[in-house]
């Protein structure tokens, strides 16, 4: 059987091909799954998709019409999949329920340190042989307060690093993590966390309850000189409200690896095109903002685990087995 994989990055391809070797053939495409590209899947019972593939009603209908019965999502998030439609069409949907939390936690700290110590600005200057220090002053993080919104596996890994820095730990979540408690974390209401934290990092999933978790009011509640990092999902932040705050000169630094309207932009080369998204275009112009293209998970370790789990999900489907990774079971 041939598995069709959409949205495969160049670095990811050999890992996918090696993982499927000895099991099934896999055809890797660099194009993302959309209504325009869905017909390519005709005749393939199983397709694999990335986090930036939109699996709404139209795409799912097209896949089902072409004979697709199983979708193996290569990500933990699944807000891009219309699960009720998939269930109605009798399609099995599986995801990767977990992978290395250190990949994302470490990258979140990379963003935090980069904006705090003005690394991008410094690198740009030295390329022009400008070695002045003006405007590059950062702050010690030791002794300052970090606010972690979401203390699951990734939030816990982020907290352990913060503990190593010697920071005061504040947390917010629907359920407390005993491991974070042991590190000295104090759980507080979101409003208190935002008001006290020098660094705020987001590690919660995107769902209706967390959409724009940081809205205009929440952003205004933060310290003027706070650092904000989001390596989870773009929809957690009201980006238009964030731009408004940045225009007022607020925040020492903002590090974003995700953006709420990233679909159709991230993972693609748009360097020769005019960007129609005015909010994103404005966002990247601020000197204290660093935007990366959803790469926090992108380590050999994490991607390897994602691919291995995807293979297991496919094999489980073919064997009629159901695991914790299945979002919509086989009908």
TrEMBL record:
One of its GO terms (molecular function) is NAD binding. The keyword Lipid metabolism does not apply. Residues 110-296 form the D-isomer specific 2-hydroxyacid dehydrogenase NAD-binding domain. Coiled coil: none annotated. SUPFAM superfamilies: Formate/glycerate dehydrogenase catalytic domain-like, NAD(P)-binding Rossmann-fold domains. It comes from the Bacteria. This is 2-hydroxyacid dehydrogenase. It comes from Streptomyces lasalocidi (Streptomyces lasaliensis).
């Amino acid at each position: 059987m041939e598995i069709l994989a959409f949205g495969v990055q160049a670095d990811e391809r050999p890992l996918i091909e090696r993982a499927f070797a000895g099991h099934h053939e896999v055809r890797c495409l660099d194009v993302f799954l959309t209504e325009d590209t869905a017909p390519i899947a005709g005749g393939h019972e199983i397709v694999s998709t990335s986090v930036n593939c939109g699996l709404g009603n139209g795409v799912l209908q097209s896949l089902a019409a072409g004979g697709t019965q199983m979708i193996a999502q290569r990500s933990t998030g699944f807000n891009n999949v219309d699960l009720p439609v998939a269930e109605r069409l009798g399609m099995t949907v599986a995801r990767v329920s977990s992978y290395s939390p250190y990949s994302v936690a470490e990258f979140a700290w990379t963003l935090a340190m980069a904006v705090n110590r003005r690394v991008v600005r410094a690198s740009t200057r030295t390329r022009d042989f400008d070695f002045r220090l003006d405007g590059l002053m950062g702050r010690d993080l030791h002794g300052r307060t970090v606010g972690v919104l979401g203390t699951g596996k990734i939030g816990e890994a982020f907290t352990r690093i913060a503990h190593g820095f010697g920071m005061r730990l504040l947390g917010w979540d629907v359920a407390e993590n005993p491991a974070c408690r042991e590190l000295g974390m104090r759980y507080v209401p979101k409003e208190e966390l935002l008001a006290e934290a020098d660094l705020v990092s987001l590690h919660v999933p995107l769902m209706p309850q967390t959409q724009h978790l940081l809205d205009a009011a929440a952003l205004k509640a933060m310290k003027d000189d706070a650092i904000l990092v989001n390596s989870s999902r773009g929809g957690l932040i009201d980006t238009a409200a964030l731009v408004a705050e940045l225009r007022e000169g607020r925040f020492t630094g903002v590090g974003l690896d995700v953006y709420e309207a990233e679909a159709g932009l991230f993972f693609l080369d748009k360097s020769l095109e005019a960007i129609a998204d005015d909010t994103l275009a404005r966002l990247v112009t601020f000197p204290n903002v660093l935007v990366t293209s959803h790469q926090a998970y992108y380590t050999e370790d994490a991607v390897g685990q994602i691919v291995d789990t995807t293979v297991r999900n496919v094999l489980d489907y073919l064997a009629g087995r159901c695991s914790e990774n299945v979002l919509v079971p086989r009908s």
